[in-house]
Amino acid sequence: MTNLPTNMPPPLSPTPATPISAAPSSVTPSSVTPSSVTPSSVTQSSDAAPASAQAHLVPDTGFDPAALILAILLPGLGHFVRRQKSRGVAIAVGVLGMFFGGILIGGIDVVDSREDRIWFLGQAMVGPIAFATDYYHQSQLKVVDPSVPGNLRSAYPNEGRNPITHLPVPGGKPPNTKSISRINELGTLFSTIAGMLNLIVIIDAAFPSRRRLSRA
Amino acid sequence: MLQTLLAYRPFLDPLPLDNAWYLLVVPLSLGVAMVYKAVRITDMRSYPRQVLIMSAQTVAAMIALGLGFFSFVEFVLPMIAPR
User: Fold this and answer.
1) How many structural domains is chain A composed of?
2) Of A18, A43, A99, A210, which has the most beta carbons under 10 Å away?
3) B42 and A213 in contact by Cβ < 8 A?
């Protein structure tokens, strides 16, 4: 892609594969079409894409509140609505894979807003999925015990849970197993890192870098 | 062992990886690389290759750090502060 100075006359016979670039100062996000690109943004492309492929590159700048809200709701959705589908899918697989991978490793016990509040602050950045997981853990798996702070605790290994009264039942099977030691630490780490990475994703969806061009 | 496996409930019970917990650094590095590269790179065509490279670099760096700290504690520290 060549950078045409503004004082040069336009080419007599431009090839269809060569987009005619306007002056960089005249390009605005609203006036950009798929066939026009800014020379500065094209030259910053790290991989030397062919000229025909550059016709699909569209500058992706500016704050988008819809992308911000959707990125908060579901990891990767903010990039998806910004016409960066493959990027959004990769983000969703990565963030949700790490979050649910942490739960798979350490059990649902790793997501606990009551017993591990500080870790939950990181897990909460995954979005409503983390809150839903914690709600299910607190309301459907824990047993009611007035002798502990908050009246809720995980069932012991030798007791079950009454589905109606939520009271512990001696001799039954616990609804879930509380993880300990390294497995609990690693499971918690997986899900918390997923949340912290999602914070970067949310910021990038709302305020994308001006140097990067979008490619669906 | 078979009864333990039959009693396992995914996502409710923890995985029985107490003796191989260090292997989990591989999926952890892979997940971090997937999200980081998805946000940073310009051309998504190179995404799989860059993810694998970054994952390998992360795992190698962790192994090197572990070996480095082990060597320091086992060999250097006794010379600095002998018993």
Assistant:
1) 1
2) A99
3) yes
Query: Residue A164 falls within a domain, yes or no?
Result: no
Q: Is A93 among the domain residues?
A: yes
CA distance B75 to chain A (A): 27
Residue A56: pLDDT band with limits 50, 70, 90: very low
Residue A6 has pLDDT above 70, yes or no: no
* Structural domain of A119: 66-141+179-206
Q: Does B28 contact chain A (CB < 8 Å)?
A: yes
Domain annotation covers residue A22: no
Q: What are phi and psi of A177, to 5 degrees?
A: -105, 130
Q: To the nearest whole angstrom, how far is the Cα of A62 from the nearest Cα of chain B?
A: 16
Under 8 Å CB-to-CB from A95, ≥6 apart: which residues? A75, A76, A126, A194, A197, A198, A201, B35
Residues of chain B with pLDDT under 70: 1-6
Residue A23 within any structural domain of the chain: no
Q: Mean pLDDT across the stretch A31-58?
A: 43
CB contact under 8 A, B27 and A101: yes
The residues spanned by each domain of chain B are 43-83
Is the ipTM higher than 0.90? The answer is: no
Any B CB within 8 A of A100 CB: yes
